Amino acid sequence: MNDILQLLDLEDEEIKVLDISTDGDTKTITVEKQLSEHFCPVCGFKMYSRGIKTRTARHQILQDGYKLILKIKQRRWRCSNLECNYDVSDSFSFVSKSKQTTNTTELMVLNALLNLDNTFSSVSRQFNITAAQVINIFEKHVKMKRLPLTEAISIDEVYLDMDPQCKYVLVIQDFRTGDAIDLVISRQNKDTEPYFDGIPMEERNNVKYLISDMYNPYISYVDKYFPYAVSIVDSFHVMQWIIRKIDMFIRFLLRQYRDRDRQEAEAKAAQSYSSDVRVHVSDEVYLLENHKWVMLKNEGSIDYSSPPRWNPHYRYYIDSYQIEARFLAIHEDFPKIRDMKELYVQFNSRNAGNPLQAATELDELIDVYADSQLEMFEEFSKTLKRYRQPIINSFIMEERIIKGEVRLSRLSNGPMESLNRKAKDLKRICRGFTNFDHLRNRFLFTTRKTPTINN
């Protein structure tokens, strides 16, 4: 029967199994310490047994559909020297004093909580313990600290809306490893200023690159907190700026054509003295609703090789070239707008590692957009001019660990987007948080590659 100890992974060589019983889906295993002579650690007198106390602890190894409970017979010992009267109970290495779960269970609970998809409630059901016990195990062993600042750090906010004081949480990431350095309760100056001022100056002096979007307070961090760093404006957010403008223009046209179609339908209904106004979906509305990709997608990413497909609106087979031609014909500026956008796409895709050449090309683009006679690109020209140097800096190449390999990569907030998504997923899966410290602990524990656990 003692062979079961090896299977149970109970790290104690002095115990033996007394009984195994099953009641429904609950399996109970009774264990005790092997009987041996005890001597008082205080005076050296022999100790005698003064009875056995039975305690229970849940254990999660080899359940196979069973709820596994350990009954631990804990013998109590007292010194035979009446002047000493020292009292002690048997100790077991696999379970701590007064705990209702074994140490192995606690490690398995923590391992389960590394999975972002697991909530405290789901882990409690998995290990047949209460959600409060899972939380207590987590808070006992997990106290995540800020990682040291590195040469290249990324900063961004994530919208969690925990309370009025904690809407936009600030995320700080190590560009090289992708690990979250820390989570700050908000991006407001009243929180970020004491936070960064509290980091030793010699550590802040090590930062060479601060990567962010075009949010001006982030760019100002370089002058305020990191005197030897340069600001990097993430290329994704620059592209996102012009894509958003084009999308807004498409939405504006869509509203206009919808209004036109509705007015025409109402006029026809009035002429026929009918109260039934049926709005026919025009070609323009159909294309603007369903094929914005013609304008928003990079031209090099469009699959022109796919065969024609049946189109339910036109009621015949049509390919990508035909959809593209029809879409661009909707507005006289569409072809030029797409060409202007593609100029920046092509600029952004080359000159990696060559910021000097990027600077020359960017200045040329600024002039081209300023003379484009398109309002959105004239505004884009001013934006590029305003963030000129941080955009040029984004063409610098630095080492980053990707899938275990060290590779050269452009400085960007690409890894940060994945990290922010995990924060949102954690909020959604756990149905919100009310305690920022608890959220921070779980987020850092879940996202870091090698999180530390306290004993």
Structure report:
There is one protein chain. The protein is α+β, with helices and mostly antiparallel strands and 455 residues long. It has 17 helices and 14 strands. The chain has helices spanning 4-8, 103-113, 120-127, 131-141, 189-197, 201-204, 216-225, 235-271, 283-290, 293-296, 320-328, 334-349, 355-370, 375-386, 388-393, 414-429, 436-447; strands at residues 15-23, 26-33, 47-58, 67-79, 87-89, 152-163, 166-174, 180-184, 209-212, 230-233, 309-311, 316-318, 397-402, 405-410. Strands 1, 2, 3, 4 and 5 form a 5-stranded mixed sheet that branches. The chain has a 5-stranded mixed sheet with strand order 8-7-6-9-10, sandwiched between helices. The model is unreliable at 1-8 (pLDDT under 50).
Please render the helix and strand layout as text.
Elements: H1 4-8, E1 15-23, E2 26-33, E3 47-58, E4 67-79, E5 87-89, H2 103-113, H3 120-127, H4 131-141, E6 152-163, E7 166-174, E8 180-184, H5 189-197, H6 201-204, E9 209-212, H7 216-225, E10 230-233, H8 235-271, H9 283-290, H10 293-296, E11 309-311, E12 316-318, H11 320-328, H12 334-349, H13 355-370, H14 375-386, H15 388-393, E13 397-402, E14 405-410, H16 414-429, H17 436-447
Parallel strand pairs: 2-4, 6-9, 9-10
Antiparallel strand pairs: 1-2, 3-4, 4-5, 6-7, 7-8, 11-12, 13-14
Helix pairs in contact: 2-3, 2-4, 3-4, 8-9, 8-12, 8-14, 12-13, 13-14
